Fold these 2 entries.
Entry 1:
Amino acid sequence: MEADLEPGTDDEVGRVLAELASLEDPKMRAVNERHGDDHGVNLTKLRAVAKRLKTQHDLAIRLWETGETPARLVALLICRPKAYSAAELDAMLREARAPKVQDWLVNYVVKKSPHVEELRVAWFDDADPTVASAGWALTSTRVQKSPEGLDLPGLLDLIEADMKRAPDRLQWAMNECLAHIGISHPEYRARALAIGERLEVLKDYPTAPGCTSPFAPIWITEIVRRQSA
């Protein structure tokens, strides 16, 4: 006999999966797969699905368990972030191989969790570079919003030593941290700019018109200019 389930939950999972499948666009999938995201659902339409469902934590758990990237993205939008334990969030991050799932998990769930600082510290120097990138992303948030207690010179030392050869996602997160140190902390701006110039990470990254380059020296200089305008 199956365990008792919330009424309608299994049926609702099936309906959500069917709706997401109907939104699949092969051309969009081809674009997304180049970035490691295995789905072809327009994110605006996916968000509309989540908005209609509203917060349903039990359904979020079931959608996450499907392992399907679009279902997991919906799950992250309809869950209750504070309902997850630190161990559950750690397990979810290690399962979340798609970049968009990892990004939404960190930004929409972990950042709202009471376990955020515990997880930031645990993930920061994890042997898995994907997990470590989440620790660096959370550190960037602290650099901007609550830097008290952070060793900013030590972070710059690590970036200077390791960013150039770091795997892509970790490198991106370290570069973001470098930029935010330079933007938010004028006393370290010159050093942050010098590190960016010397390492040249993302210097040639293609940037759309009207967007700011992720190359740290350009990024820092442009945001500081805007803030001073």
Entry 2:
Amino acid sequence: MRPKKLAERFRISASTIRNYEAKGLIPPTERSPNGYRIYTDLHAAYLSCIQAMAQPFGMEVTAEVLRCLHQNKPQYAMWIIREKEIALYEEKEKLERLIEDIRVYSIESKAWCADKLFTIKEASELTQIPKSAIRYWDQAGYVRADRDPANHYRRYSGSHLLKIRLIQMLQSTVYSEETVNFRQSIAAVEHTDLQALVNVAENIRGYLDKILESQMRGILNLYELIQFTKA
């Protein structure tokens, strides 16, 4: 295939394909007598794999996996993907616990020490999230801390901590338009509006379900590519 034909097939530009080749994501091409690049079914298989894996795993991971294939290390490539699968499962379990904690907090007035305020250091220790991240989210408007009237220090309630944990859920996901929208939704929700927090969390759960499905498609394409390269 000529570059233009391959680019049309995958709805990308010929320059993108050349860029993939320059970065080692697809095999080097042969040249025709007049100097044109000639692409084969193997290049098409690599491009299919890139498109299937980039959305659920991110381009950085996808590039690392494909370079492993170029180095004839398919097992390394598969273990990289398995690590990301496990990470997604762990994120989903954390989200389920968070949804349950929000519901418990909304029912039991004393859950999570509802009548107590925490310093930023205590909030960091309770959520296992760095103070720098919490401070940044406060400044960015994702979670607005209360202020101590005496010294103006930040103070966080139990519902603040729940919102902080919800923001953290998006930190390890691949950047996308949907994750941007989720961040905006979180910023718009008051930390005291627990039902709204649950709604956002459940929407994120649906998004993780979609990522899981996309990961399965990416893994299928990777497996087919590995078999192709073996053949």
